[in-house]
Amino acid sequence: MLSFDVEEYFQVEAAADGGTRPQQWDSFEKRLAPCVERILRLLSDHDASATFFVLGWVARHERDVVRMIANAGHEIASHGMGHAMLGRLAPEQFHRELLDSRRLLEDISGRPVVGFRAPTFSITHETAWAIDVLAEAGYKYDSSVFPIRHDRYGVPGAPRFAHLAVGPNGGEILEIPPLTLRVMGVNWPVGGGGYLRLLPVCLVAAALNGAGRLGRSGMIYLHPWELDPDQPILPMSRLARRRHRVNLGRTDAKLRRLLRRFRFTGVAEYLDTEAAGVEQAYSYGLKG
Question: What gap in Å lies between CA 165 and CA 100, rounded to an integer?
Answer without folding.
Answer: 23
